[in-house]
Structure formats: C-alpha cells, structure tokens
Design a protein that fits this description.
The chain is 6% helix and 52% strand. The protein has helices spanning 33-37, 106-115, and strands at 18-30, 45-46, 53-65, 78-90, 93-103, 119-121, 123-126, 144-151, 154-167, 178-185, 193-201, 204-220, 235-248, 252-256. The radius of gyration is 19 Å and the shape is globular. The model has no long low-confidence stretch (mean pLDDT 97).
C-alpha cells in the first residue's frame, strides 16, 4: 500500500495476511426492503428471504500482520469501527454486503478500501464487558451494553443491549461471504472509473467465543452528509455480543468493468 518506498516500511498497511481479534456488538432489525434495495447496484438483487433485514455492528478490534510487531506498538493495532450490513443475491447466491462503515484509525480505513469496504473516519464507542469490579457489565443475564457512532461532529447511531441469555450465533445478516465493489474515479473526473470491480471475500481460521443475546434498541439520526435514516427500523430482531477472531489473506474478483 502507499506510500511505496524502497524498503516498504512507510506503507500505511503491511502486506497480508492480516489477523483480527475483538469483541462485536450486533444489533439486527428490519427496515423497508425498498430502502435496502437502493443500496444494491446492478447486478445485485435483494435477498430472496427477509430482504429488509439489517445489522449494525460495533467491533473493538486488535489486528496485526504475520510479523505480530503491531501488538507491541498498540497504536498500530487497535481500532474501533461501526458498520451497517445488509444481504443481497448475486447469481443465485446470498451474500452479506457492508453499505456504510466508520472507523477511527487511518490504517484500518485504507485497509478496508483495499477490501471494498466504504470506510469513513468516525468516533466509535461501545461498553466493555468486565470480569472484576462494577465499572462494566458482566456477560450474564441483565448485563447492559451501550454503543455510539458519531462522525463530522454529529451523533449518527446509538444502541443498547440487555443480555437475556445465550444464542447459537450472532444473528444471520452478517453470516455470509462479503460482496463489495472496489471503485476509484478516473483522474479526468469525467464520470468514469479507473477501478471498478465486484469482489467477494471471507476470513479463514475463524474462532468465536460464546454468543450472548438479548433485547436491543437502536436509533438512527439525521445528518447532512449521511443517509442512515432511510433505513429506519420497522421491527427489532435482537442483539448479540460475541468475541471473534479471524484472519484474512485475499479475495476473488467476480466482475471487472473496463475503464471507458
């Protein structure tokens, strides 16, 4: 990744594979299926079942490359992000698709651009579980978590989760391979793209901890530079908390549009 130098040490992102460990708070709800369909450019189509399902996910990550050097320099490894996921269909297969995402570190933003995530900078926070003391919830029924997402000085999302028990998985919206577009406008600024690809990917060597489920609430706020409120919740599905570990090396290009 840039900047490219003789040694490569200045690169904003080290070469893959990349390894991730963290905690994820997931809130699922149903929105207007037509609003979800707006976020699916051709040739993508709405998922054949539950096409209005949406997940908003907060992830508190620690990441590193194969050198593991970043773990001894935490400013290069720790970040938080909030992302909005829907499902879609492509050639008869169902995929998950990240439609909006905010992150609080530049290396994570650019790494996401490489993968096709439409990352923006934001300020993201979620309650951390504790095993000692009282300055945090325990992972047990009654444990209460809060989460916020802000960007450009404006609150965009807040959510709450109260644990009621356990679940076999953290919902279903974010449970498929990811399907993204990688795009970059041409330098001529004539409406064409120098890069326009449809790609898919998923991690490997995934490891998950116990999944805790519960009652959830979420609120989306207006912003002059965001469109989240088009996905206003119609019906809540639920909330989940889970520790997740995974690694990522590469994806697959499904379609590539030639520059015109």
């Amino acid at each position: 990744m840039f900047p490219r130098t003789a040694t490569g040490r200045s690169s904003l992102v080290p070469p893959p594979p990349w390894h991730y460990s963290g905690q994820m708070l997931t809130i699922e709800f149903r929105a207007d299926p037509a609003a979800v369909a707006e976020l699916l450019p051709a040739p993508l189509e709405p998922a054949p079942d539950d096409p209005g399902a949406v997940a908003v996910i907060w992830a508190d990550w620690q990441s590193c490359s194969d050198s593991f050097e970043e773990l001894l320099d935490p400013v290069r490894s720790q970040y938080v992000e909030t992302f909005v996921v829907v499902r879609c269909s492509y050639r008869g297969e169902v995929y998950s698709r990240c439609t909006y995402i905010w992150v609080d570190r530049d290396f994570a933003m650019v790494r996401g651009h490489h993968q096709g995530y439409p990352k923006k900078l934001g300020q993201l926070f979620l309650t951390r579980a504790v095993n000692v003391g009282v300055a945090g919830p325990r992972l047990e029924p009654g444990g209460r978590f809060g989460a916020t997402c802000s960007a450009a000085g404006r609150r965009l999302i807040d959510a709450e989760l109260t644990i009621t028990g356990t679940a076999p998985s953290a919902g279903f919206v974010n449970g498929h391979p990811m399907l993204h577009h990688r795009v970059f406008p041409a330098i001529e600024s004539d409406g064409t793209d120098s890069l326009h690809e449809l790609v898919t990917m998923r991690g490997y060597d995934a490891e998950v901890g116990p999944c805790y489920a519960g009652d959830a609430t979420i609120r989306l706020y207006e912003s002059p530079v965001e469109e989240l409120t088009r996905l206003v919740p119609i019906e809540m599905i639920g909330g989940f908390w889970q520790e997740v570990g995974t690694s990522w090396r590469s994806g697959t290009t499904l379609e590539r549009r030639n520059a015109t």
